[in-house]
C-alpha cells in the first residue's frame, strides 16, 4: 500500500507518499481500506518531531479516517467486510489501509458521505469526552470555545447548542466569527480586538462561563480562570500558547472551579472504546437528525498532504481539511 511517511522531521515537504508494507490486523482489530483521513494539529507536531505515536501504533500520521472494512481480525464480531466506517486512531490515517481496534470503529452516520465522515471521529470524541463526560455541560449553561472556527470548535458549538447551552466563541476574524454564528454561536469575540474576559462577563451579566474549552494552554490560563463562573470548569485540550503558566490558586478556590487537561491519543484502549461508545449513543442520533454536521473546509488528495499541512498552519480554514485517497 501507500502511506505518508516522515523520513526526517521538518516542514510540510517532509511528508512523502511512499510504498510501505500492508498492516496486518491483530487480535480485536479490523483492517480498514481508507477512503479519506483528516488533518489535526497533532499531525503537524508529529511531522515536526514533537509528538511521537504511542508505542506499538502506526508510525504514519493521521488520527482519524473513514473507509470500508477489508478484513475482520480474530476475536471481532458485529462487523462485516464492506461495512462503511469511520475510526478514531492512534496513528496511520494517512494511508491506503490501517488496522483499527474494533472499539474505535463507528458506522458512517446516516446522511453523511463516506469522505465527510473522516472529519468526525477525533473532534467528536475530543469534544464529547471533555465538554460532556468530564466538564458535564448542562442545558442553560454557557460554554466558551477558544478557536471556534476550528474543527474542534465547529463541532463544540453544534453539540452545545443541541443540548440547550449558550455558546461563546473566540476567533481571529470577522469572517470566522460569522461562520461560527451560522453554526449557532451566541457570543462572538474577536480575540485580536477584544478582551474575552470582559466580553464573556458582559454577555453573562457578570457570571462568566460555566465551561471553557481551551486549546491555548499557558497563554490563556490566568484569563481563563478569571472568565470562569462560580463552579466553572476549564478543560484544556491544547498547548498552542505554551506549556508553563502561572495559576492563581486563590482565584480558583474562590470560584470553587476545576481545571482538567486531557489528550486522547495516548489513552488506554478501554478508555477510547468507552468514549467511542458514548459518542455513538449520544452524538450519532444528532448527526442522523441533522442537528450536527461535519464542517469540511476543503478536500485535498492524500498524496498532497504537504499542501494540507500548509493550509492548516496558515489557519485560514474553517472546520476540517480532509485528505482523500487518490
Q: Any key phrases for this structure?
A:
single chain; about 325 residues; alpha/beta; 7-stranded mixed sheet; 6-stranded parallel sheet; 10 helices; about 30% helix; about 25% strand
Textual characterization of the structure:
The chain is of the alpha/beta class and 326 residues long. Helices cover 28% and strands 27% of the residues. It has ten helices and 15 strands. Strands 3, 4, 5, 6, 7, 14 and 15 form a seven-stranded mixed sheet that branches. Strands 10-9-8-11-12-13 form a six-stranded parallel sheet, sandwiched between helices. The radius of gyration is 19 Å and the shape is globular. The model has no long low-confidence stretch (mean pLDDT 97).
In short:
The protein is of the alpha/beta class. The protein has 10 helices and 15 strands.
Amino acid at each position: 500500500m501507500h502511506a505518508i511517511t516522515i523520513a526526517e522531521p521538518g516542514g510540510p515537504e517532509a511528508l512523502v507518499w511512499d510504498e510501505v508494507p500492508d498492516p496486518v490486523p491483530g487480535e480485536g482489530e479490523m483492517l480498514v481500506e481508507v477512503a479519506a483521513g483528516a488533518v489535526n494539529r497533532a499531525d503537524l507536531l508529529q511531522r515536526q518531531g514533537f509528538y511521537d505515536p504511542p508505542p506499538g501504533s502506526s508510525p504514519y500520521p493521521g488520527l482519524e479516517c473513514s473507509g470500508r472494512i477489508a478484513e475482520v481480525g480474530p476475536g471481532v464480531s458485529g462487523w462485516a467486510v464492506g461495512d462503511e466506517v469511520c475510526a478514531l486512531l492512534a496513528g496511520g490515517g494517512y494511508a491506503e489501509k490501517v488496522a483499527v481496534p474494533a472499539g474505535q470503529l463507528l458506522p458512517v452516520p446516516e446522511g453523511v458521505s463516506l469522505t465527510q465522515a473522516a472529519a468526525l471521529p477525533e473532534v467528536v470524541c475530543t469534544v464529547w469526552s471533555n465538554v460532556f463526560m468530564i466538564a458535564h455541560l448542562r442545558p442553560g449553561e454557557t460554554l466558551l470555545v477558544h478557536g471556534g472556527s476550528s474543527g474542534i470548535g465547529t463541532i463544540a458549538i453544534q453539540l452545545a447548542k443541541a443540548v440547550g447551552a449558550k455558546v461563546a466563541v473566540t476567533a481571529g476574524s470577522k469572517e470566522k466569527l460569522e461562520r461560527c454564528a451560522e453554526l449557532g454561536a451566541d457570543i462572538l469575540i474577536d480575540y485580536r480586538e477584544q478582551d474575552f474576559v470582559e466580553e464573556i462577563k458582559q454577555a453573562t451579566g457578570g457570571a462568566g462561563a460555566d465551561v471553557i474549552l481551551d486549546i491555548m494552554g499557558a497563554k490563556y490560563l490566568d484569563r481563563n480562570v478569571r472568565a470562569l463562573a462560580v463552579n466553572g470548569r476549564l478543560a484544556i485540550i491544547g498547548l498552542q500558547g505554551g506549556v508553563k503558566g502561572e495559576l492563581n490558586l486563590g482565584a480558583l478556590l474562590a470560584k470553587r472551579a476545576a481545571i482538567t487537561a486531557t489528550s486522547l491519543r495516548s489513552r488506554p484502549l478501554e478508555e477510547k472504546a468507552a468514549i467511542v461508545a458514548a459518542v455513538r449513543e449520544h452524538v450519532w442520533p444528532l448527526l442522523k437528525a441533522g442537528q450536527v454536521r461535519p464542517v469540511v473546509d476543503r478536500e485535498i488528495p492524500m498524496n498532497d498532504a504537504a499542501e494540507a499541512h500548509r493550509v492548516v498552519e496558515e489557519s485560514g480554514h474553517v472546520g476540517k481539511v480532509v485528505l482523500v485517497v487518490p
